[in-house]
Amino acid sequence: MKQHKHAELIKAWADGATIEFKCGDNWHEFLGYVNSWHECIEYRIKPREFETGASYPVTLELGLRFIATCTVCGDFYLTGLSGNYSIEELDWIGDKLEIDWPE
C-alpha cells in the first residue's frame, strides 16, 4: 500500500502538533478532520514563535545544554558562547524560561 503524501504531518497532527495549510502566500491553522488531507494542498507544522529578549533551554552538538536568548534579528545567542545561532541549529528542550537577569 502506498503511503499518503502527508503521512508524517498527519501523524504529527494526531500526536498534537498544530498544522497549517497554505492558501496563496499565507499560512492558516488547519482545523480539519482525518479525511480532509488533500494531496494538492501544502501543509506544515506551525513554526515555533519566540519572543525577542526571552530565554529558552536548548541543546547543541553532543547534547550540551545552554540558555538561548532571542535577539532582535530572530537569531539566538547562547550563554557562555560567542556568535549567533539560527533556529535550525538548536534543539529546543523546553518553553520560555522566567529569568530575571541582573543588569
* End-to-end Cα distance: 61 Å
Order of helices and strands: HEEEEEEEE
The main β sheet shows up as:
5 strands, antiparallel
Helix content: under 10%
Structural class: mainly beta
Q: What global shape is seen?
A: elongated
| Number of E-type strands | 8
Number of domains: 2
- Low-pLDDT segments, ≥5 res: none
Strand order of the largest sheet: 7-6-5-4-8
Please count the helical segments: 1
Walk me through what this model shows:
The protein is mainly β and 103 residues long. It is 8% helix and 31% strand. 8% of the residues are buried.
Summarize the entry for a quick read.
The protein is mostly beta strands. It has 1 helix and 8 strands.
Strands, helices and their partners?
Layout: H1 7-14, E1 19-23, E2 26-29, E3 43-45, E4 55-60, E5 64-70, E6 76-78, E7 84-85, E8 91-92
Antiparallel strand pairs: 1-2, 1-3, 4-5, 4-8, 5-6, 6-7
